[in-house]
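Customer escalation, tier 2.

The customer says the design service returned an amino acid string that "doesn't look like it belongs to this structure." They asked us to rerun it and document both sides in this ticket. The original structure tokens are below, unchanged.
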């Protein structure tokens, strides 16, 4: 029988699309060992028709809900969330696949750190396609903003940054993510 925490994990997967064993363990099973968290996740998979398991993608299991599309992309968004959630500040809001005025970002974030209110539009770019900076320029010019969000470009490619936008680039591992708080 599924426990309350199990349903929170399922709801998290519905919201983010995919997560690894390690990500779920840190967020929902922080006080237990990795092996115990893995066993709990296996039980959730066994007892739930919603959660699927993919053992082929990484060295650790990947859990997802729905179609197995853009799983690596979703894992990067989940990892960025995990880093902010466990980071030194307070995560106020994190909306995956957030749309404002027909502009979809991979996530919209509000984060409080050292008395500063940060807002981010997250753009994960894993493909060889150039990031679409123009959509953000149009968005930022089209309305009044109390705080114009910084663009967090998550990519392992060294894309040129746009001079009209406040962009911080971090790798897909999200290592060094703290640079977004400059």
């Amino acid at each position: 029988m599924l426990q309350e925490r199990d349903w929170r994990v399922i709801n998290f997967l519905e919201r983010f699309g995919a997560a690894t064993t390690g990500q779920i363990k840190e967020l929902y099973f922080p006080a237990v060992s990795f092996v115990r968290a893995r066993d709990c996740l296996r039980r959730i998979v066994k007892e739930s028709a919603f959660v699927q398991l993919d053992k082929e993608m990484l060295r650790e299991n990947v859990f997802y809900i729905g179609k197995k599309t853009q799983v690596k992309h979703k894992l990067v968004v989940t990892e960025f969330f995990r880093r902010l959630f466990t980071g030194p500040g307070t995560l106020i809001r994190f909306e995956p696949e957030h749309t404002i005025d027909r502009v979809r970002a991979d996530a919209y974030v509000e984060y409080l750190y050292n008395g500063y209110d940060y807002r981010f539009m997250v753009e994960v770019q894993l493909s060889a396609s150039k990031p679409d900076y123009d959509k953000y320029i149009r968005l930022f010019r089209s309305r009044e903003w109390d705080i114009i969000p910084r663009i967090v470009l998550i990519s392992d490619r060294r894309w040129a940054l746009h001079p009209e936008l406040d962009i911080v680039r971090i790798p897909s591992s999200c290592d060094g993510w703290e640079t977004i708080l400059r």
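Tier 2 assessment: The sequence is consistent with the input. The chain has a mean pLDDT of 90. The two ends are 46 Å apart (CA to CA). Sent an explanation to the customer and offered a walkthrough call.
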